[in-house]
Design brief:
- This protein is mainly β.
- It has one domain (26-151): Immunoglobulin-like.
- The chain is 14% helix and 45% strand.
- Strands 1, 3, 5, 6, 9 and 10 form a six-stranded mixed beta sheet that branches. Strands 2-4-8-7 form a four-stranded antiparallel beta sheet, with no helix packed on it.
- The mean pLDDT is 86.
- It binds 2-acetamido-2-deoxy-beta-D-glucopyranose (NAG).
- 2-acetamido-2-deoxy-beta-D-glucopyranose (NAG) is lined by residues 41, 43, 59, 61, 98, 114.
């Protein structure tokens, strides 16, 4: 009986965590961001894999807070289809800051980055793991997030 109660409490706690992660945007893997990643929103996708049909574009919003001054940054996208590696057009950097943000980025300030992820028709119909970097002027990953996408 006690064991069952414990299990129930355990599952209840898991659900609680899941609920709060969900409320906080899209669940992505952090792959070594040096800035604090406050929130990621991928259009129509809360718990990846994100399912997209080709050709399409998907809104990607990243809210982040660097802890040092950044002169400029740019997006780099990577896609792995199994072992094969495809370049993915990387859309912009400083120019895509919203809510009045601009470069240089100041330490401890929070910035909103709004971009689109193009899903080209040449991409194979497959599962792919996308890695999205926002790299500073020294190629350090301010943001590195990773999420699976299913292309239909
Ligand atoms: C991303 O941000 C833009 C501009 O702030 C907003 O219009 C859009 O709805 C956001 N998209 C998502 C998926 O949160």
């Amino acid at each position: 009986m006690m064991k069952m109660v414990k299990e129930l409490v355990y599952w209840w706690m898991c659900l609680g965590v899941l609920c709060c992660v969900v409320i906080d945007g899209t669940v992505v893997t952090d792959c070594g961001s040096v800035a604090r990643v406050d929130r990621v929103d991928i259009e129509g996708c809360i718990i990846p894999p994100c399912v997209v049909t080709r050709p399409d574009i998907q809104d990607v919003n990243i809210t982040f807070t660097p802890d040092y001054q950044v002169e400029s940054f740019s997006s780099v996208l990577d896609a792995y289809f199994g072992d094969a590696h495809y370049p993915w057009p990387g859309p912009g950097g400083c120019d895509l800051l919203t809510e009045g943000g601009s470069c240089p980025l100041l330490a401890g300030h929070t910035y909103h980055f709004h971009s689109i992820m193009p899903v080209l028709s040449i991409y194979p119909e497959l599962s792919v793991v996308v890695t999205w970097f926002l790299e500073d002027e020294n190629n350090k990953p301010l943001v590195c997030i990773r999420f699976p996408v299913i292309i239909l």
